[in-house]
Amino acid sequence: MAIITLTTDFGMKDHYVGAIKGGIYSELDSVNIVDISHLISPFNITEASYIIKNAYKSFPAGTIHIIGIDGELTPENRHIAVYLDGHYFVCSDNGIMCLLTQEIIPQKIVEINIHDHIESSFPVMDVFVKTATHLARGGTLEVIGKPIDKIKQIIDLKPVINTNGTQILGSVLYIDNYGNVVTNITRKLFIEIGKGRSFEILARTYKFRNIYNRYSDAINFSIEKAMRDEDGKKLAIFNSADYLELAIYKSNPVTVGGANTLFGLHFRDPVTINFEKQ
After folding, report:
1. Half-sphere exposure (CA, 13 Å, Cβ side) for 174?
2. Which residues have a Cβ under 8 Å from the Cβ of 272 and sit 6 or more positions away?
3. Percent helix, strand, coil in the chain (nearest 5)?
4. Cβ atoms 53, 82 nearer than 8 A
5. CA-based torsion, 44, 47, 53, 54: positive or negative
6. Lowest mean pLDDT: which of 58-62, 98-102, 256-260?
7. The pTM is what?
8. What is the C-alpha end-to-end distance of the chain, expressed in Å?
């Protein structure tokens, strides 16, 4: 049975998500629909790109992913379907595929051209659903679009390396539900540039000189609990997606605050790693 996932910024209050699911079932009653997230910040392409990049790999090959962010068709925002790493992605060509295509070259890309047969003010419902259900029935990309070889990239998502290789200038890519701050610096890049050298991470006035593999690694459990330095413990970690993350141990944004508020960090704010000179 085909799987279609949904990632949107529609929220859960309005009728949009339910309407999309109804549209899919009207086209194809034998299908599994999985919600990845409907709480993407409005029109936040980078946030959606990070979430879909780290979610799609858990699904079996052949899964179809509808990404409903900034879906209105304009001369600068065409609709595309991408076949990449054994998965299909139906979305706008607005840079939302940038984190995936930085690491994996798409096998096929088409610009969707079924709009002449559809009158729509809700393209995620009408165009994206039609495309996804066509693919779920075993249809090919060439039937619903013309092949293209390039899609839009968001260039400033990539960290900058200085000329002598002693600094990575990154930025805040995403803030999660706990208020943890995810940067655009990957473990792979850190190892490649750092070459085992000592380092210092700078985020506003905060400094970090260790990177942990687990949140609890920052806590010394050999010390009696009442004496441990746990509350408000700031730490840097490579998260499950292998991105550098700045966090507060067991933070709660509703009560004590998360790393983003306590460190004063927001989307695209700079985070720098300085390595010792060789």
Report:
1. 23
2. 167, 168, 169, 170, 201, 202, 203
3. 25, 30, 40
4. no
5. negative
6. 256-260
7. 0.90
8. 56
